Amino acid sequence: RAVWCLCEKNPDNPLKMTIGDVKTAQGLSDLNKYLADKSYLSGYTPSQADVQVFEQVGKAPAASLPHALRWYKQIASYTPAERKAWPAGVSPLTAGGKPTAPAPAAKDYDDDDVDLFGSGDEEEDAEAARIREERLKAYADKKSKKPALIAKSSIILDVKPWDDETDMKEMEKLVRTIEMDGLLWGASKLVPVGYGINKLQIMCVIEDDKVSVDLLTEKIQEFEDFVQSVDIAAFNKI
């Protein structure tokens, strides 16, 4: 049966306590007594000594061993990565009380792992390039199928007649005969301007890339028997 020595890290306290195998009831009992007034096995902070005994114990001690159970739960609350980073401590696994630390993992090398010509990297780069090109092509195809945003504007035009004898209904009828790709006529109304004269206020929506506002007003002014002038009362982007 393995016999371990738990030694205080504090040189002012030379107390040594020999315990049995912690996988046995007697060994756990000895461990419980040792931890009665201690938080950790070696000093005041956790160390690799705690990790080694923790792994040997394997599972939480019984409730009848409160000190060992408290210590076990405390060590178990840390992640394996955190426990691995703890410093060396006085190990209970050696009778001489020598400091222990986790042995670095040895790396095995194999001749097959060494590629003198770098062919693997070239194949990997070619594969990565192929995947990148496929993704770029898929993105371009998706973007090309997406309908483009059409810029539009809402315009209110003031169409003024020559005098109060102008047939406003006929003037509006003529204005609405103007047809252009990207032009949509909307609501209209007559607005008094004084001396019995009304102006035609008419709304339209245009596609900016297809309809020129200047060209539209020129076409309206071509009805010179009815139209004196055309002004833009409001212009808003949609």
UniProtKB/TrEMBL annotation:
Q: Which SUPFAM superfamilies match?
A: eEF-1beta-like (SSF54984), GST C-terminal domain-like (SSF47616)
Q: List the record's Gene Ontology CC terms alphabetically.
A: cytosol; eukaryotic translation elongation factor 1 complex
Q: Which GO terms describe its molecular function?
A: guanyl-nucleotide exchange factor activity; translation elongation factor activity
Region of interest (Disordered), residue spans? 90-111
Q: Which UniProt keywords apply?
A: Elongation factor, Protein biosynthesis
Domain Elongation factor 1 beta central acidic region eukaryote, first and last residues per copy: 116-143
Family matches, as InterPro entries? Arc1-like_N, eEF-1beta-like_sf, EF-1_beta_acid_region_euk, EF1B_bsu/dsu, EF1B_bsu/dsu_GNE, Glutathione-S-Trfase_C_sf, Transl_elong_EF1B/ribsomal_bS6, Transl_elong_EF1B_B/D_CS
Domain Translation elongation factor EF1B beta/delta subunit guanine nucleotide exchange, residue spans: 152-238
Source organism, top-level taxon? Eukaryota
Q: Where is the composition biased (Low complexity)?
A: 94-106
Family membership, please give it.
Belongs to the EF-1-beta/EF-1-delta family.
**Name under which the protein is recorded:** Translation elongation factor EF1B beta/delta subunit guanine nucleotide exchange domain-containing protein
The protein's organism comes out as Pectinophora gossypiella (Cotton pink bollworm)
